[in-house]
């Protein structure tokens, strides 16, 4: 018997899918001998099971896609937060460096914890405070070409370090004021 196509039209209402299935089965029963075969029920059940498995795979794929998007979004947010934290850290470090660099004093020098100094183009003055009434014989002051040591005798030096540039010790002097 040659097969011929017969048109089928119906409207699917998602709130009542069984009405659509009833129309499909009525159409198949009227237009074919499908339901007269013993295998009809098995074929319909396997088609329903296959549709159910296919739907479960689609739902699982959508959930996996959403989870991957959320993970990527969370990683992006974490990366931005990390970058912001690094920028803040660099800004804090820069502020710390700027605050650690003291401004020069009135004499274009620096006021430090144990001494201060001022400078002009021709000379440098280093002021080391000592207890009131200290005599010169209680002090040590060694001015060498590349080194300066100043302090009270019998105590660790107040200044003991290399000079930035060599000097002429013969042109240097110290005094108590």
Automatic annotation (TrEMBL):
<feature type="domain" description="CS">
    <location>
        <begin position="110"/>
        <end position="177"/>
    </location>
</feature>
<dbReference type="GO" id="GO:0005737">
    <property type="term" value="C:cytoplasm"/>
</dbReference>
<feature type="region of interest" description="Disordered">
    <location>
        <begin position="80"/>
        <end position="110"/>
    </location>
</feature>
<dbReference type="InterPro" id="IPR007052">
    <property type="entry name" value="CS_dom"/>
</dbReference>
<dbReference type="GO" id="GO:0051082">
    <property type="term" value="F:unfolded protein binding"/>
</dbReference>
<dbReference type="InterPro" id="IPR008978">
    <property type="entry name" value="HSP20-like_chaperone"/>
</dbReference>
<dbReference type="GO" id="GO:0006457">
    <property type="term" value="P:protein folding"/>
</dbReference>
<protein>
    <submittedName>
        <fullName>Protein BOBBER 1-like</fullName>
    </submittedName>
</protein>
<dbReference type="GO" id="GO:0006950">
    <property type="term" value="P:response to stress"/>
</dbReference>
<feature type="compositionally biased region" description="Basic and acidic residues">
    <location>
        <begin position="80"/>
        <end position="98"/>
    </location>
</feature>
<dbReference type="InterPro" id="IPR037898">
    <property type="entry name" value="NudC_fam"/>
</dbReference>
<dbReference type="Pfam" id="PF04969">
    <property type="entry name" value="CS"/>
</dbReference>
<keyword id="KW-0963">Cytoplasm</keyword>
